[in-house]
Amino acid sequence: GQQLNQSPQSMFIQEGEDVSMNCTSSSIFNTWLWYKQDPGEGPVLLIALYKAGELTSNGRLTAQFGITRKDSFLNISASIPSDVGIYFCAGQRNYGGSQGNLIFGKGTKLSVKP
Amino acid sequence: NAGVTQTPKFRILKIGQSMTLQCTQDMNHNYMYWYRQDPGMGLKLIYYSVGAGITDKGEVPNGYNVSRSTTEDFPLRLELAAPSQTSVYFCASRKDSTDTQYFGPGTRLTVL
């Protein structure tokens, strides 16, 4: 089945540093979503993007919907220890038989050095 | 408002046993989903439902069954558990008109 290419797979950063991760696909999506998963919990939605080129912020998080509709980026500024977790991108198509279903990336595991 | 709840939180099965993973949402969402998450992997869709009485296969449906007799409940059934079904299972739901899927806390299943 199709899966998004998410990178990096993991990263260690110093507290206060900025973080960037991205997701790419061979096909286009109508919506890009970014989720965060804490240990032992289900994913929680961080940011949803609905238009190509859209740039959306949620506190220290900023995400962009790529112009080609085949990629998306998530940036975290001034990281803090509670940013630790796994970040997933997900793409959604609003057409076809699986309308509304999400395709997930494999995740980026973020670890912060205190 | 509890959101999406899943039971049990943990379970160990022997090969060939059967069990039902429960999922309930109290948000009156029409769409419900079952995913599995293997270590180091993203979530893969097992089954989904667009409303009571309607279910459809996702990417990895083999070895599972679902039913949707009510809007609130979407149980996932494993008939003959296999080691390959060792995973963390997440249930999710969403409204018709929004893109946000709300996830439950997950069920960690081990098949030995």
Description of the structure:
The complex is a heterodimer of chains A (114) and B (112). The radius of gyration of chain A is 14 Å and the shape is globular. In chain A, strand 4 and strand 5 form a beta hairpin. Chain A has no helices and eleven strands. Chain A has strands at residues 5-7, 10-14, 19-24, 31-37, 44-49, 55-58, 61-65, 71-76, 85-92, 102-104, 108-113. In chain A, strands 2, 4, 5, 9, 10 and 11 form a six-stranded mixed beta sheet that branches. Chain A has a five-stranded antiparallel beta sheet with strand order 1-3-8-7-6, with no helix packed on it. The model of chain A has no long low-confidence stretch (mean pLDDT 90). Chain B has strands at residues 4-7, 10-13, 19-25, 31-37, 43-51, 54-57, 64-66, 76-78, 87-94, 102-103, 107-111. Chain B starts with a strand and ends with a strand. Helices cover 0% and strands 50% of the residues of chain B. With 112 residues, chain B is mostly beta strands. At the A-B interface, strand 5 of A face strand 5, strand 9 and strand 10 of B.
**Percent helix of chain B:** under 10%
How would you describe the oligomerization state of the chains in this entry?
A: heterodimer
As a percent range, the share of helical residues of chain A equals under 10%
What is Rg of chain A? 14 Å
Low-pLDDT residue spans of chain A: none
Largest interface by Cβ-Cβ < 8 Å: A-B, 25 and 24 residues
Number of helices of chain B: 0
Order of helices and strands of chain B: EEEEEEEEEEE
Rg estimate of chain B, integer Å: 13 Å
Largest sheet of chain B: 7 strands, mixed
Between the first and last Cα atoms of chain A, what is the distance in angstroms?
38 Å
**Into which percentage range does the β-strand content of chain B fall?**
over 45%
What overall geometry of chain B do the principal axes of the alpha carbons give? Answer: globular
Mean pLDDT of chain A: 90
User: How many strand segments of chain A?
Assistant: 11
| Secondary-structure-derived class of chain A | mainly beta
State the separation between the terminal residues of chain B, measured CA to CA.
36 Å
- Major sheet attributes of chain A: 6 strands, mixed
Low-confidence sequence ranges of chain B: none
Instruction: Let me know the number of strands of chain B.
Output: 11
Note the run of SSEs of chain A as H and E. Answer: EEEEEEEEEEE
